[in-house]
Design brief:
Layout (H helix, E strand, L loop, with lengths): L4 H16 L8 H15 L4 H10 L3 H9 L10 H11 L4 H4 L5 E5 L6 H14 L1 H7 E7 L2 H9 L1 E2 L9 H7 E3 L4 E3 L1 H4 L2 E5 L11 E6 L8 H14 E9 L12 E5 L4 E4 L26 H9 L4 E6 L4 E4 L1 H7 L23 H10 L3 E11 L2 E14 L2 E11 L1 H100 L3 E6 L4 E4 L1 H7 L3 H4 L17 H8 L6 E8 L5 E11 L10 E9 L2
Parallel strand pairs: 1-2, 1-7, 2-6, 7-8
Antiparallel strand pairs: 3-5, 4-5, 8-10, 9-10, 11-12, 11-15, 13-14, 14-15, 16-17, 16-20, 18-19, 19-20
């Protein structure tokens, strides 16, 4: 499963580039995966393919995704000591700053919501003065996030966003409104905001100060190199580059050198012109021999040469050989005057014929370095063979052949070469370690800023939860108030029911109240004594279905008459049996409930029952 994810992520990034023009392929894969996974979790997408489908169906998700991928972690005067050092030690030394008639061009890529660009403006205004700042300075603040750029263009910030601004700078450069702090309009005109993609768009040129802090660490090494080459092109020769605290450019020494690595300040490496200077190599005299009228003197001088040397005439006959040559090439006096091709030295240690042909044709010295010679008295040797023409008034008289023993030099050179290879290997390993360290440092900084973003989100969520808790407490208090009112009403109802029960009991009649469904709603104590049923037993039961000693079926007609408002009073006497089994005559009076004296609907019937004396 893990093997298919990168391909799916690549498809997702390709879709984003095609649909919205944002190219995230140059960003570090680990950071992109973490941020995309965060959005996938929030929208409930289980795979890259599901999230791609979600993007296609929900165009508004692009904004949330870009806000997550483009980590806009910034603030005013981030790392205050860096800005203080820039204002006091670096900017006053810039040639463009010292030249009062020169414009000052500043570029702040990845400016996010503008805090860093306005920080640069405040620092430059402090160094130059407000009037010179307005006349000379242009600050180009760029980003790929249009939403962040819109916020930056307003230059308005909440109190919590300007906490890092020193009090004197806050008073000098900001105007206070009801809820926000707004950057001064006259200085704001020198800060120009626009969209620029560091990977795809052309850089802004002739820059004196370039501040790109904690941005490179989100890109891959290849993309970083591409961006840095653009920065190099954009900057003037004496310009200053300011980076974030995790960006050291150790592996880009061909483009930038540190001014002060502690503060992450760099200056570009000035490239030489296309015209290269030519170096002239000095050549030593050929053999040091001089003409002499004395043959003996000539031979003695030849023998003092530190190198083995022979002399051939124009016919390639051996004329002379010093002592070193005689030992090296095993020559004796009988070999003098013999043709070269009769001697072993014609092919050992080097085949001389073809080189002599070249020398005679060009009349130029021929050198053959690194010739191996084995089997000599001193063992295997390495020789540099040098053949020089002997001329007199441009006439070739002969050839001087010098065999220079460079065995020790060759051995030393071999050791040097081996040491260089080992050094290069160690340097490559060190370079790799440095790159890994730089990458790790950048990822840690990136993770730290992601954690800062997450912390802000958690703080916002906590504030929402506190607000919700306060609302719940308020609702709880309201419920408690309602509960108290309901308890009070319940007490009042209980008191009213007790009062009503007392009235019904006092009148001395058995009373039952039924609703329009003819179900019992009230059943007083006299009714319980008369018929032997408690109020709980008859509550909400149909009266005509009660099993009591009263022939309730005969009450159907008067009850209907009352419910139909046909009569204001119905009275009937029935033979009944009380709860003790004693027969008696019972008078039942039916009264419509709510009908008397009103035009309202009858809501029920009141039945009053009492024994009649025989």
């Amino acid at each position: 499963m893990a093997a298919t994810q990168p391909s799916s992520l690549a498809d997702l990034l390709g879709f984003i580039k095609e649909a919205r023009g944002f190219d995230f392929t140059g960003y570090k894969r680990s950071s992109i995966e973490r941020r995309v996974a965060k959005r996938m979790t929030e929208v409930g997408a289980g795979s890259y393919e599901d999230y791609l489908d979600y993007l296609e169906l929900n165009a508004g998700e692009f904004v949330e995704l870009f806000n997550t991928l483009l980590i806009n972690v910034t603030s005013f005067f981030r790392d205050p000591a860096t800005w203080e050092h820039l204002a006091e030690q670096v900017l006053p030394q810039l040639e463009s700053i010292r030249d009062t008639g020169s414009p000052v061009r500043v570029w702040c890529p990845s400016c996010a919501s503008g805090e860093e660009a306005y920080t640069l403006a405040m620092v430059l205004a402090r160094v130059l003065g407000d009037q010179a700042f307005r006349d000379r300075v242009k600050i180009y603040a760029t980003d790929v996030d249009e939403e962040a750029l819109d916020q930056a263009r307003h230059g308005a910030y909440l109190p919590r966003q300007i906490e890092n601004v020193p009090p004197e700078a806050l008073e000098r450069f900001f105007d206070r409104t009801d809820q926000r702090y707004v950057f001064r309009k006259d200085l704001r005109r020198s800060v120009i905001f626009g969209r620029n993609d560091l990977v795809q768009d052309a850089p802004i040129s002739r820059i004196d100060v370039l501040a790109c802090r904690n941005t490179l660490m989100y890109f891959t090494a290849e993309t970083q190199s591409q961006i840095l080459r653009r920065f190099h092109f954009a900057m003037r020769d004496n310009a200053v580059l300011l980076l974030g605290k995790s960006e050291m450019l150790i592996t880009h020494g061909d483009l930038f050198v540190p001014i002060d690595l502690k503060w992450r300040l760099f200056r570009k490496v000035i490239k030489p012109s296309e015209r290269e200077r030519v170096r002239v190599l000095a050549i030593d005299p050929s053999n040091g021999a001089s003409h002499s009228i004395s043959e003996t003197l000539r031979e003695a001088a030849l023998d003092t040469s530190p190198h083995a040397q022979i002399v051939l005439d124009r016919n390639r006959t051996l004329v002379m050989a010093n002592s070193g040559a005689r030992r090296l090439l095993a020559l004796d006096v009988n070999d003098f005057g013999r043709p070269l091709y009769d001697l072993k030295l014609s092919y050992r240690p080097l085949e001389l014929g073809r080189h002599l042909d070249v020398l005679e044709r060009d009349r130029q010295t021929v050198e053959v370095p690194g010739v191996s010679m084995d089997g000599s008295e001193a063992g295997d040797r390495v020789l540099d063979v040098r053949m020089a023409p002997l001329l007199s008034e441009d006439v070739l008289l002969g050839v001087s052949v010098i065999y220079q023993d460079v065995t020790d030099v060759a051995a030393l050179q071999s050791e040097i070469t081996k040491s260089q290879h080992e050094l290069e290997s160690a340097y490559d390993e060190l370079q790799s370690t440095v790159e890994e360290l730089e990458t790790t440092n950048e990822e840690l900084q990136s993770t730290n800023e992601e954690l800062e973003t997450t912390n802000e989100e958690l703080q916002s969520t906590n504030e929402e939860l506190e607000t919700t808790n306060e609302e719940l407490q308020s609702s709880n208090e309201e419920l408690e108030t309602m509960n108290d009112e309901l308890r009070h009403r319940t007490i009042e109802v209980s008191e009213m029911n007790s009062f009503l029960e007392t009235i019904l009991t006092t009148i001395g009649l058995a009373v039952a109240v039924i609703d329009r469904r003819q179900c019992v709603q009230i059943w007083n104590g006299q009714a319980r004594e008369l018929w032997g049923l408690d109020a709980e037993e008859v509550a909400d039961q149909p009266l005509l279905s009660l099993d009591i000693g009263l022939p309730v079926d005969q009450l159907r007609k008067p009850i209907r008459a009352c419910l139909a408002k046909e009569s204001e009073r119905e009275e009937v006497t029935l033979e009944a049996v009380n709860r003790r089994g004693r027969a008696f005559s019972c008078r039942v009076i039916c009264l419509p409930l709510g009908a008397a004296g009103s035009d309202g609907e009858v809501s029920g019937v009141i039945l009053m029952m009492e024994p009649v004396a025989a």
